[in-house]
Amino acid sequence: MSEMLTEMVPGQEDSSDYELLQELNRTCRAMQQRIVELISCVSSEAVTEELLHVNDDLNNIFLRYERYERFRSGRSSAQSVNNGVLSEATEDNLIDLGPGSPAVVSNIPNAATTSLPPALTGPAGRPSSPATLASRLAGL
To answer: Where is region (Disordered) located (predicted)?
Structure first.
């Protein structure tokens, strides 16, 4: 499955290869369930360690498969709708929470501070400094 994911290009694969990849995904997921069950039954530390390594490898392959599927579905829908214009919208985007970011800047002054409980605010309803906030949370 890992080799197929390395060799195949999302959206450009042969239908039989894609069907095989889906079947391998189902089979590997069933195998992982059996591995997880075995981990609790095995008494040998060396075998348990090997099972944990295999489980980690399977989880990594599942992540790659999910990425492949997301890219494949995003790419095919973007190509069918706007000839690739939507490809930017289908990628995993992060929210910018830095200073001045629209996600952080609020048009209502002190809107967040007025809803904080008194134990988390300092004088005049302003948020406490991180050190003071931590000590007050520890006191709760």
So the answer is: 116-140
Helices (H), the chain: 2-7, 15-41, 45-82, 87-90, 111-114, 130-139
What is the pLDDT, as a whole number, of residue 17?
93
Q: What is the DSSP letter of 84?
A: T
Bridge partners of 121, per DSSP, are 127
User: What whole-number distance in Å separates Cα of residue 120 and Cα of residue 130?
Assistant: 10
Contact 8, 27 (CB under 8 A): no
Token pair of 100, please? Answer: 């001045």
pLDDT under 70: residue ranges of the chain: 75-137, 139-140
**What does the block give as tokens for 115?**
């809803």
Helices 15-41 and 45-82, axial angle in degrees (round to 10): 150
Tokens for 10, please give them: 């999302």
d(CA 14, CA 17): 5
